[in-house]
Amino acid sequence: MTDQSSSLAPESLRPLAMLALGRTGADIERLVRDVRRTLRRERRTMVWADLEAALRSGHTKMSDDLRWRASVHEAGHALVYALTGIAEIKMASVGLHGVGVVATVANDRLPETETWLMNSMAALLAGRAAELVVLGDALAGAGGAAESDLARATDMALAAETALGFSRHRPLLYRPSGMAANMLGLDQQLAGRVNDRLEAAEKIARQLIEDHRDVHNEIAEKLRSVGILSGDELGEMIANIRQR
Quick one: 90 and 181 in the same domain? Predict the structure, then answer.
């Protein structure tokens, strides 16, 4: 590296660290060797931009439309996680491995009440809610797999009705998770109550996004532009809400 490295603050390395997520130390060593080999042929010294370009080159490129949708989606998650206090945001990204991600650490200081549960569901559904608010429709990406946003939110709503004592209908009747999941297809009343919870949680998310459209748009635009935002950067943008 050139002397340019000595003038960089630790924050300057954060985008590189985020781009390297999922890679092993051996992967990074191999990438650096490849970059140096290329630069020797070009008769120049490595700078940070070379390493960043190499890290980015391994990621699937999104179309402009999909990148904007992903930015809107992840900005929705980030905003609702922060405003409800459900979790601390560590980073948000779009385009890495062709997908969008918001990495969080759960706030374990909150009491796990029904309000906590509904806000947790709202945060999970906030990406899809943001697409509906901003774009008028939503992609299938919020669902489709057992670990998807829709699946996880549905599991929480089902637990509220069958295992956590939050149901308005027979709240003390505990039903094991496997039994309860099978009942969704058989018990239409239970399915209706679960769906009502999901719709109520999505309404919470939509309301927060609509009330703070300017901040949501600021986050989405920045994500689309730079691809990665740290938790500190997101925190600064969202903190502005309390100053307005």
Answer: yes
